[in-house]
Design brief:
This protein has 17 helices and 16 strands. It has helices at about 15-30, 40-50, 50-65, 85, 95-110, 115-120, 145-160, 175-190, 205-215, 230-240, 285-300, 320-325, 355-365, 370-385, 385-415, 440-445, 475-490, and strands spanning about 70, 75-80, 130-135, 200, 220-225, 240-250, 250-255, 265-270, 300-305, 330-335, 345-350, 415-420, 425-430, 450, 455, 465-470. The strands form 4 sheets. An 8-stranded mixed β-sheet has the order 4-11-10-9-8-5-6-7, with helices on both faces. Strands 12-13-16-15 form a 4-stranded antiparallel β-sheet, with helices on one face. Strands 1-2 form a two-stranded antiparallel ribbon. A hairpin with a 6-residue loop joins strand 12 and strand 13. Helix 1 crosses helix 3. The structure holds pyridoxal-5'-phosphate. Pyridoxal-5'-phosphate binds near residues 205, 229, 272, 335 and 347.
Length: about 500
């Protein structure tokens, strides 16, 4: 070689890596030419003052990556076609942009209906992070017992076995976690279910997605609470379902509206009975029984999204629909996004026995399996009691925040607002007395640095109702947010 390689024996970088980088650079910069013979390993080691093994290992690595080629008996050569060449893009010629644009337009016409829906409906989030985010339906991450969680995480990392790198045999999820969930649900939700019926998924979002794929055909009708959780509505719509909105009163979903000649044949009805999203109404027991009776008589599935049932601040919890279901009509969705932290992306489905195999297969087809490590940690977290301890502690914190938020609204708005729903959850629905349009309220609040969410009504209409999420906000922020809201919309208008 007619150039020098620089190897620094005092560097923290291992010698093999230094030699690799030097040779790779020389090849890419054409100081070593394609097809050129490399020095013999012994000779190169001697000239650099390093061991021959280091040179041999470097040559081996570069050969397996395609930078060098070994010819039996005659030595090692720089490869004629370098792997990096395949990765490098060609410089675009004249008119390229225009051609790409035309092609892009033609190709988007070829998207599926689902793809077209996603293409035409942008994913919108706040352009800049607001000073006060009342739209964040999240738990308070600062209160999460991260020390216990990381201890368990470390334990499982340290005891990792090679066999755990392989795909688990069952797509349904880690059995000890499914068992821990089953035990917890029996204790907390009056739901007695075998672990066999539980399927671990990546949060409620994936649960609704799987439900939709398994049950809903393009053009099918699905019953949705009105107003509803936007997350579920968009999944159903993206998959081509037609939404049949059903109103919600003080007892929950109006089951009466599911009856009658003008009601289309519904594939499923999606409900949030423990704390209707967003009105906060808890579905009464008679209404639950009425819904189950209707579901049984009409052979319709009921999707129960039990997203934040853990936070109920007064009265006895009403058993989940799933626990009352005698006719295998209910598909239950649970999530850890509201109790632990949202980036965990773990939730679960409980499906009737006749659908276990189908949903397990759907999960397999979608992404095989949810990540094992987090499932192992969560299984221990629940089994060792940290989960329920955390919920008990957070229930007090959220109840206090809810009370504080209502006091703060009273201080700033007097009697010109109304909170609907039961004393539960980590958000509430507030109706303001104002003549401003909903869009104008959102805009004015935004100008003050506050993000609030309108409700998802079908059809969309002005209601002056807004979702105020207080769970992740300490009192000082709640107070600041409400006072800013009052500057934005509070004055008599
Ligand atoms: C009604 C409802 N269900 C479920 C979720 C949670 O979704 P995920 O488990 O996908 O985070 C939310 C989040 O805001 C919600 O409002």
């Amino acid at each position: 070689m007619d150039f020098a390689l620089t190897i620094d024996s005092t560097s923290e970088l291992p010698l093999q890596q230094q030699l690799y980088e030097e040779l790779r650079q020389a090849i890419l910069e054409r100081r070593l030419l394609a097809g050129q013979k490399m020095p013999a390993t012994r000779e190169l080691a001697r000239s650099l003052g390093i061991s021959r093994t280091t040179v041999v290992l470097t040559y081996d690595a570069m050969t397996s990556e395609g930078y060098l080629e070994a010819a039996t008996g005659s030595g090692t050569y720089v490869a004629r076609e370098l792997p990096d060449e395949f990765l490098r893009s060609q410089a675009p010629g004249a008119g390229h942009e225009k051609k790409v644009e035309v092609r892009r337009r033609a190709c988007t016409q070829r998207l599926s209906k689902f793809g077209r829906y996603l293409h035409d409906n942008e994913l919108v989030g706040p352009a800049v992070e607001p000073e006060i985010n009342f739209a964040l339906g999240r738990p308070d991450n600062d209160e999460f017992p991260i020390r216990q969680w990381t201890q368990l995480l470390n334990k499982h990392c340290k005891s990792r076995r090679f066999s755990e790198l392989e795909l688990p045999k069952k797509s349904q999820g880690y059995l000890p976690l499914r068992q821990a969930i089953a035990d917890y649900l029996a204790r907390a939700r009056d739901v007695n279910v075998e672990a066999e019926r539980i399927i671990i998924v990546n949060g409620s979002q994936q649960a609704v997605d799987l439900v939709t794929r398994v049950l809903v055909e393009h053009g099918d009708h699905v019953g949705l609470e009105n107003p509803c959780w936007f997350g579920a509505q968009t999944i159903f719509e993206a998959q081509g379902a037609k939404i049949y909105p059903v109103s919600v009163d003080a007892n929950g979903l109006n089951v009466e509206e599911l009856r009658g000649k003008r009601v289309p044949d519904l594939k499923l009805v999606y409900v949030t009975p423990s704390h209707q999203f967003p009105t906060g109404v808890v579905m009464s027991l008679p209404r639950r029984l009425e819904l189950l009776d209707w579901a049984e008589k009409t052979d319709t599935y009921v999707i129960e999204d039990d997203y934040d049932s853990e936070y109920r601040y007064e009265g006895r919890p009403i058993p989940a629909l799933s626990g009352l279901d005698k006719s295998e009509s209910v598909i239950y969705i649970g999530t850890f996004s509201k109790t632990l932290f949202v980036s965990l992306r773990l939730g679960y489905l409980i499906v009737p026995p006749h659908l276990v195999q189908t949903f397990a297969h759907a999960k397999w087809m979608t992404d095989r399996h949810s990540p094992l490590l987090e499932q192992q940690v969560l299984a221990d977290f629940i089994a060792e009691g940290h989960f329920e301890r955390h919920i008990r502690r957070m229930r007090n914190i959220y109840e206090q925040r809810r009370r504080f938020a209502i006091e703060s609204l009273t201080r700033h708005f007097g009697d010109r607002f109304k909170v609907s729903g039961d004393n539960a959850g980590i958000h509430m629905l507030v109706k303001f007395q104002t003549k401003l349009s909903d869009d104008e309220i959102v805009r004015r609040a935004q100008k003050e640095g506050v993000l609030i969410l309108r409700t998802s009504r079908i059809p969309e209409e002005d209601t002056a109702e807004f979702i105020i999420c207080y769970g992740s906000l300490p009192e000082a922020k709640i107070e600041l947010g409400v006072s800013k809201l009052s500057s934005a919309i509070g004055r008599r208008s």
